[in-house]
Amino acid sequence: MKEIDLRYICTVIGNLSGVPIRIFEGDELTFYHALVYLPKDPMELYREDIWRIKGNVGYFVTRHFHYYGIVNSGSTKIVLGPTRQITHNVQELQELAFRADVPADETEDFVTGMKSIISIPLESILQILCTINYILNGEKLELKDIVIYDAEQNGLRELLERQRSSIAMGCPPDELSYEHNTYPMEQKMLRMVRTGDTAALREWFASAPAVRGGTLAADQLRQLKNTFIVTATLVSRAAIQGGMETEDAFSLSDAFIRKCELLQTIDRITNLQYHMVLDFAERVGRIRIGKEPTQLTLAVANYIQHHMSEPIRTEKMAQELFMSRPYLSTKFKEETGETLTDFILKEKTEEAKRLLRYSDKSSTAIGSYLGFSSPGHFSRVFKKYTGRTPSEYREKFAR
Questions:
Q1: What is the spatial distance between Cα 133 and Cα 125, in angstroms, rounded to a whole number?
Q2: Averaged pLDDT of the chain
Q3: Distance between start and end Cα atoms, the chain
Q4: Closest listed residue to residue 369, CA positions, set 60, 170, 92, 11
Q5: For residues 44 and 24, is the Cβ–Cβ distance under 8 A?
Q6: Within its chain, how far is the Cα of 156 from the centroid?
Q7: What is the greatest pairwise CA distance in the chain?
Q8: Nearest 5°: CA angle at 95, between 92 and 101?
Q9: Using 50, 70 and 90 to split pLDDT, how confident is the model at 174?
């Protein structure tokens, strides 16, 4: 049998799929092929997670629902990705560029390159992996043989094992005669999602009573997946009622459902459901201003969340909201008691606080990512709203 020309195979696969592909020998990258230009390879952000996958075939899904497929054969590792099935959000790609240390003057190229990668269903990526695996390892696998890997979900395992009976929403057939108790619990959960009250939601999850939700399928795994779909539908609608933009909510719901359908164990579905509900609540919490948000304040907050990594101009915001700049500024001040400029800078400061606490990026990089004109400008604004410089804040609060 002739020696396998792996580079040729990967080049053909990269050309056909439109997705970047790599060959590693040990830890060393020996081949990379992509039809798009990316100043930095985003895969490097997830190298540690990808290298934990030891089976012949596996895949990893990031928190933004990009997926990477992996084939292992001895010391050789092939990594295909990233791609995803839902439409890219520019703000998410800018955040990804920031996390990948893409220089500011190349961020636009990175975003353009990522948007140009062909969107492919994960099932299709898995079929490609199965083909490569057969060529390299002589092993015939089907989609059902490939297990999802998600380090973020694994981190929730210990907490959620204690909550499985409360959240799983499954019941054996002999409990069909029991009274359904889901409605009051469902309304309580949705109210917390609708108001973005993540603190109350976490506390409620820790002590929620066991759920008797009826039987939606004869098989327990299908029961959980059907319940997950119902939950995704309900919380996405609650998030929309709370002010989240409809397309954002629907896209996020679709992505979670597709991810759930690929899972094959009860604990992973439970973990994902918990993560999904909190994700929706956290997103709503970021856009609700005050106890009674108005249509105007919700529109402004959504706009800021979508443009967090840009210098936000009031004139441009007013144009996109179909009103004049003076009217927008005046009306916002009337409804919130603060100026629009103050609100924008406070929101950017809140995001800066999160990045200073949970990332290792320098304050200069964070200020640049958030659209501040200079490190000095960022430092002055940050101190105005927190009473500390960025370095002082990180020293006190960083984990």
A1: 12
A2: 84
A3: 55
A4: 92
A5: no
A6: 16
A7: 78
A8: 145
A9: very low
Q: What CA–CA distances, in Å, run from 15 to 10, 18, 30, 81, 243?
A: 8, 5, 18, 13, 41
Residue with the bigger pLDDT between 314 and 211: it is 314
Using CA atoms, how far residue 115 sits from 19, 36, 133, in Å, is: 11, 9, 28
- Specify the pLDDT at position 2: 62
In the predicted model, what is the mean pLDDT of residues 276-284?
90
The pTM is what? 0.66
Helix axes 198-207, 182-195, angle to 10 degrees: 150
**Residue written as token pair 């009274």:** 179
The answer to whether 81 and 20 are in contact (CB under 8 A) is yes
pLDDT at 136: 93
Bridge pairing between strands 148-149 and 57-61: parallel
Enter the tokens of residue 40.
Answer: 């930095």
Q: Within 10 A of 301 (CB to CB), how many other CB atoms are there? A: 20
Please give the pLDDT value at position 389.
94
The kind and range of the H/E element at 10 are: helix 6-17
How far is CA 319 from each of CA 40, 59, 325, rounded to the nearest angstrom? 34, 43, 8
Q: List all residues 6 or more positions away from 397 whose beta carbon is below 8 Å from its beta carbon.
A: 353, 356, 357
Q: Report domain 6-149's class.
A: alpha beta
Q: Can you give the residue ranges of every domain in the chain?
A: 6-149, 152-287, 295-397
Residue whose entry in the numeric block shows the structure tokens 């919130």: 336
In eight-state DSSP terms, residue 313 is: P
**Predicted confidence (pLDDT) per residue in 46-90, tens digit:** 999 999 888 899 888 887 888 899 999 999 999 999 998 777 788
Q: What is the pLDDT of residue 217?
A: 54
Q: Once rounded to an integer, what is the mean pLDDT over residues 172-181? A: 42
- Same fold: 6-149 with 295-397: no
Q: What are phi and psi of 68, to 5 degrees?
A: -125, 130
**Residues 261-275: tens digit of each pLDDT:** 888 787 788 888 888
The CATH architecture to which 295-397 belongs is Orthogonal Bundle (1.10)
Higher pLDDT, 93 or 221: 93
Q: Which residues pair with 63 in a beta bridge?
A: none
Its sign, for the CA torsion 244, 250, 256, 260, is: positive
Q: Measuring CA to CA, how many Å separate 130 from each of 34, 69, 140, 146, 160? A: 20, 10, 7, 9, 32
Tokens standing for residue 15: 């050309």
